Amino acid sequence: MSRRRIATLAAAALVLGFAAIAPGTEVGASPAAVEPAEAASASSGLDYWSMVFVFLLSTFIGIGVIRRVSRLLHTPLMSLTNAISAIAVVGSIIVTGSDYPLEIRILGAVALFASMTNIVSGFLITDRMLKMFKTERDKQ
Amino acid sequence: MSIAVTQLSYLVATALFVLSLHWMNDPKTARRGVHAGVAAMLLAVLATWAQPAVIVHHGWIVIAIALGFAVGWPLSRVPLTAVPQRTALSHAFGGLAAGLVGTAKYFLWLGEGQENLTAFRMTAIIAEIILGYLTFTGSLMAAGKLQELKWIPQRPVTYPGQNFINIGLLVVAVFLGVALVLNPVAAWAVPAFVAIIVLSLAFGVLLIIPIGGADMPTVISILNSYAGLSAVAMGFVLDNKLLITAGALDGSSGLILSIIMCKAMNRSFVNVLFGAFGKVEAAKTTGEQKIYKAESLEGAAQILEQANLVVIIPGYGMAVAQAQHKVRELYDQLKKRGINVKFAIHPVAGRMPGHMNVLLAEADVPYTDLAEMDDINADMPQCDVALVVGANDVVNPAARTDASSPIYGMPIIAADRARTVFAIKRSKNPGFAGIDNELYFSDKTWMLFGDAKAVVGELVKQLSGGGMH
Question: What is the ipTM of this complex?
């Protein structure tokens, strides 16, 4: 089996796993909830589906793009994707800065610190490594 | 700032992230990729922060960001031999961030707005905390092993019933998770939630304990994937599509690297995680005493001088001995004589994907002379001298010939097809997997015993002392 096929299958399995959860959502939520919540769950039910679609498509794009990355650069690739997945910073900022109870915001601040560390060290070390990759001609 | 502006910024950031990875396909455009990534991140942070309707407290944000810079900057200056542990550490931070945000969101909604705890969100929160916390402790363990901390055993630790216990922990955590999805606000919900956290933290530690150094490239890649998936789960919890896309990019990157690593060792994910490679049934010591042939450095230097094509095969031993700069001097000496020199890089050489490439690039070896295993193997029959520097299993012909060998089926660099092989080896002990290497006893192999840096340094001295033609 080709590497591509394995990757595609694995991605599809992941996505189907999440997709399987989505339809269950409304079933689980509606009996307990009353009308206003039901209206909300109907609209956000659609939104859940669109999020699953986004996940599916971005996983395929990710696989397509990463497969073309030069093997030379796998170490910088990993530190770059580290920095990119520190996009968790967005969630951390929301939790830290919103008008939430103190304990919640403390958790957010620690998460924000951790994400920020990854962003700073990830991008800087990637650039530092990439600067070292030279051809014979670049050296002159 | 309106929602439209925020979403538009997220959209642009998503595009930049994809482009950022796209530009990594070539060393010539790779730095542009980093710049695109930085721009995207800056945009995402500013767009999130500049929402006066949402973000009302700024002090802690400033402090946390400042602390992130204070810790992140030194972490980006580590020596390149320490890059695997830095990478593992940053997976730990990523997992921690996801776990904490998931925890915070659960308790927030439990306190105010329980109607937010829909089955979908609860599932996402549970996935986020399990993945986040197990990545956190698992990566810390991996980083500790790579850093060779004294109180973390380097050798794989195994005990009876290990897999049973590990999988049992995970099953209990998932079971509690399902119960919570069905009853997110039950009286026992908080203890159950805390129990999931504790189980995930413990699972992360136990998962890494039985894994040896040779499996680190695969494990780091798998943890990379988990860190990305935990960010995806956070996106589901927060209804944030930027988190989902960026997390999915990271998750798929980890997935692809894991697959490449597994294929390069001819093993499956399951086998890496639950197989405890390092302990391989007491490396069968065959009765007959085999004899190494040692070669003097003068002799080796003379043979090298007469070669047309020299292939250098680096392994983790080169990194341990910090020999990459001496290796580059040797490369320069040979190149000066018009000898064609290539480096043969096995995908799992070192402790993380691409480790050898970065070390050699640091030592100023042009990347055009770093060859992938499949490309160089075709040239090996024309190779006059294969010089093995601190590599072992990746050149072991038993992978091709001995069906009983634990590494049987693993693709190797065909050093044994070269006309002459010089192998630099620190000691006469077998390699990481504890397997004898037939290559070292072959008729055309000569051993150069000693520290890789010292031996290569001595070869350079011989070559430069021998005068120019």
Answer: 0.89
